[in-house]
Specification:
This protein is mostly helical. The chain is built from nine helices and no strands. Helix 3 (39-67) packs across helix 4 (73-86) and helix 6 runs antiparallel to helix 8 (149-166). The longest helix is centred in the N-terminal third of the chain and has 29 residues, at 39-67.
Amino acid sequence: MVGTVIAAVAGRTDFSDVGRAKLIALPTFFPSGTPTFEVGAIVSMTIVILVIMTENIADILPIGEIVGTEVDSGRVADGLRADMAATAAVVLFGSVAASGIRTLTRVRFHDNLNMLIVAVAIAAGLIPIAAPTFWDAFPESFAVIMHSGISATAIVAILLNLLFNELTIGNRSGASVFAAAQDERDGLGERIDDDIRD
C-alpha cells in the first residue's frame, strides 16, 4: 500500500485496467498451466532440504543444552519450521555451504580416505558450474539431480563414505593414498640414508 501511494504521487501508476475489471471475479487457476512434478527435481530438492535439516538439528540440540532446555521432537520440529519459514534462497544455500565448511573442521583426515572423499565430492559439486552441459548426455531424471551442486556433492560424499568408511571388508589401516605417499617418501629417505652411509 505504501509503495502504491508513493508510485501514485510520483505519477508511476496506471489504473486504467481497474475500471475495465469485473466487480466480482474468480481468480484464474493455474495461469501458467497445470503443475508438473519431475522426479529428478523432487529428489534434488529433497536432498537439499535433508542436508539443511541435519545442519539445523545439529544446531538446535547443543543450543538446548547450553540454555538448559529440554529439546524434544516437538521443539526440533518447531525449530525446523521456523528456519524454513525465515530463510531466503540465497541465504539458504549459503548457509549450507558455511555449515559444510564448519563440519569439515571436525572430520578426522589422518590415516583414512576422508580427504579423497571430500575432494571428489566437492569436485562433483563444481561440475554444474564449470561445465553446465556435462550431465546433459545422461538420462533427464538423473541429470536434473546432478545439475544441483548440493545434490551432487551430497550423493557422492554419501556413496564414497559408505564405500570407504562403512564397508570395511578388505580395508586396512593406513589405506589412505596420502598415507601411502608418505610411506613411499619415508622409504626413499631411508634408502638415501643407507646410500650415504655406504
